[in-house]
Amino acid sequence: MIMKKRIGVFGGSFDPVHIAHINLAKIALESLSLDEVHLVPVFSQCQKYKPQATTTDRLNMLKLATINDTLLKINDIEIKNNKISYTIETIKILRKKYDCTIILGSDQINNFCTWKDWEEIIENVNIAVAQRSNVPIDLSYELVSSMCKLHKCISLLPLIQTEISSSIIREYIFKKNEESINNMLDPLVREYIRINNLYKKMRKINVYR
């Protein structure tokens, strides 16, 4: 019997991808003994406005940010759909080939029970949560109850002490405060943003997935 690769599935807008994204992927890779982590940029998020950068730009920035990390893979499965994709739809496809662990932030796990077919998701994948100092984990009774029935647990990744976010980066660029983002972005990503004049216009984007 051929063993499936154990992968982490890390979805998001990556608008733009920043060093905290990459650090989290590396932490998950090591902490969970995964074979690979797949970064899955969304086409357009449910409960969210359309990402500001184009799909091409977001993919290019991800490629630049992971150019030296062979175990971090860019998976464009949702972008190829060319429509809003729900996590359950992506998982159903990936689990045919991989043993999947989805990587979530504490803000995402706190509202996980609002996701489409969330119970089916936890039946089919493992869950790892990245703790954030500014967003305490607050699991719902429904989620805990369902996990117990399935004899599953949530893996906690090490606490991430960072205030970096894509929205903060976009705001700094819009306000022409580029010096503030020097330590938030891979140099290649930062140069790509500059050359392509990305994020010069500000548009409000909700924080929910």
Taken from the alpha-carbon principal axes, the silhouette is globular
Low-confidence stretches: 205-209
CA(first)-CA(last) distance:
37 Å
CATH superfamily: HUPs
**Oligomeric assembly:** single chain
Largest sheet: 6 strands, parallel
The top level CATH class name: Alpha Beta
CATH topology: Rossmann fold
List the strand order in the largest sheet. Answer: 3-2-1-4-5-6
Structural class determined from secondary elements: alpha/beta
Helix fraction bin: 25-40%
Order of helices and strands: EHEHEHHEHHEHEHH
Task: Average the pLDDT over all residues and give the rounded result.
Answer: 90
Rg, rounded, reads: 17 Å
EC number: 2.7.7.18
Function: Catalyzes the reversible adenylation of nicotinate mononucleotide (NaMN) to nicotinic acid adenine dinucleotide (NaAD).
Family: Belongs to the NadD family.
Catalytic activity: nicotinate beta-D-ribonucleotide + ATP + H(+) = deamido-NAD(+) + diphosphate
Q: Could you explain the architecture of this structure?
A:
There is one protein chain. With about 210 residues, the protein is α/β, with parallel strands linked by helices. It has one domain: 3-Layer(aba) Sandwich (Rossmann fold). About 35% of the residues lie in helices and about 20% in strands. It has 9 helices and 6 strands. It has a 6-stranded parallel β-sheet with strand order 3-2-1-4-5-6, with helices on both faces. β5, α7 and β6 (about 155-160) form a beta-alpha-beta unit. The protein is globular. Residues about 205-209 have low confidence and may be disordered. Pathway: Cofactor biosynthesis; NAD(+) biosynthesis; deamido-NAD(+) from nicotinate D-ribonucleotide: step 1/1. Keywords: ATP-binding, NAD, Nucleotide-binding, Nucleotidyltransferase, Pyridine nucleotide biosynthesis, Transferase.
